Amino acid sequence: MHVRTLTGGLAAALAVTFSLMGGQAVAAPSADTDRALAARVVTYDASGSAEFRSAVDRGTAIWNESVNAVELRPAAAGQRANIRVLADNGWPRAITTSLGNGTVYIGRQAVNEGHNTIRISSHELGHILGLPDRKPGPCSSLMSGSSAGTTCTNAYPNTAEKAEVEGYFGGAFAPTAPAVPLNLMIVD
């Protein structure tokens, strides 16, 4: 939301400046246009996520609500997805191949122990978006993962986590290198 506001405000200021200077003024783009121009689209395929499909869709929606520089979308039929999401009987984990690319496993072991499926999904997607584990940590930190305990259901990134992802994907600040090493399996 803040990138859209900044770019919309900048475009409006430039339009006023050009009109005052005698130049040609143009209409400021809409918030939807700003989002489309600002966001890097990363596709995901949750067809292998079995009973966790709705948790995966909610996890991606949470990221889309939380940041502007990247947008997670389901891959179109026949399209190769940037992120594959699979269910298995192990512990949740993410294998990153590059920023915005990799495989997420929603492991039933953590679910059977009582961990929240939407938090797991959002947390593992956070790894693909460049965030490392921050354990131990409070429930208010999405990337604290399982160290926040089974009663923690917070599936939203905190302000610092949002800012990191915005930076990695070219948000309002200069891009920075992701904190998660690439070509690495992160077992939570």
Question: Which structural traits does this protein have?
Answer:
6 strands, disordered N terminus, globular, alpha/beta, single chain, 6 helices, six-stranded mixed beta sheet, 188 residues
Q: If you had to describe this structure to a student in words, what would you say it looks like?
A:
- There is one protein chain.
- The chain is an alpha/beta fold.
- It has helices at residues 2-20, 31-38, 53-66, 108-112, 117-128, 159-168, and strands spanning 40-48, 70-74, 83-88, 93-98, 101-107, 184-187.
- A six-stranded mixed sheet has the order 2-1-3-5-4-6.
- A hairpin with a 2-residue loop joins strand 4 and strand 5 (101-107).
- The protein is globular.
- Residues 1-33 have low confidence and may be disordered.
Q: What is the element layout, followed by pairings?
A:
Layout: H1 2-20, H2 31-38, E1 40-48, H3 53-66, E2 70-74, E3 83-88, E4 93-98, E5 101-107, H4 108-112, H5 117-128, H6 159-168, E6 184-187
Parallel strand pairs: 1-2, 1-3, 3-5
Antiparallel strand pairs: 4-5, 4-6
Percent range of helical residues:
25-40%
Structural class: alpha/beta
Total beta strands: 6
* Largest sheet, spatial ordering of strands: 2-1-3-5-4-6
Quick gist of this model?
By secondary structure, the chain is an alpha/beta fold. It has helices spanning 2-20, 31-38, 53-66, 108-112, 117-128, 159-168; strands spanning 40-48, 70-74, 83-88, 93-98, 101-107, 184-187. Helix 3 links the parallel strand 1 and strand 2.
